Amino acid sequence: MSENKRIILDPFGATVIEDYERLFTEFGIQPLKPLLSEIPNPFMAMRRGVIFGHRDLERVINAMKSGKEFAVMSGIKPTGEFHLGTLVTVREIIYFQQQGAVAFYCIADIEAYEDNGIPFEESEKIAINNVADLLALGFDLKRGYIYRQSKEERVKDLAILFSRGVTLATIKAIYGERHMGLYLSALIQAGDILMPQLEDFGGPKPTVVPVGIDQDPHIRFTRDLADRFYNKFKFIPPSSTYHRLIKALDGSYKMSKRDPMSYFTLDEDPELIKKKIFNAFTGGRPTAEEQRKLGGNPEICPIFDLYLFHFFEDDKDVIELYNDCRCGNILCGEDKARLAKIVADFVKEHQRRKRQYMDKAIETLKTK
Amino acid sequence: MSENKRIILDPFGATVIEDYERLFTEFGIQPLKPLLSEIPNPFMAMRRGVIFGHRDLERVINAMKSGKEFAVMSGIKPTGEFHLGTLVTVREIIYFQQQGAVAFYCIADIEAYEDNGIPFEESEKIAINNVADLLALGFDLKRGYIYRQSKEERVKDLAILFSRGVTLATIKAIYGERHMGLYLSALIQAGDILMPQLEDFGGPKPTVVPVGIDQDPHIRFTRDLADRFYNKFKFIPPSSTYHRLIKALDGSYKMSKRDPMSYFTLDEDPELIKKKIFNAFTGGRPTAEEQRKLGGNPEICPIFDLYLFHFFEDDKDVIELYNDCRCGNILCGEDKARLAKIVADFVKEHQRRKRQYMDKAIETLKTK
Question: What pTM was computed for the model?
Answer without folding.
Answer: 0.90
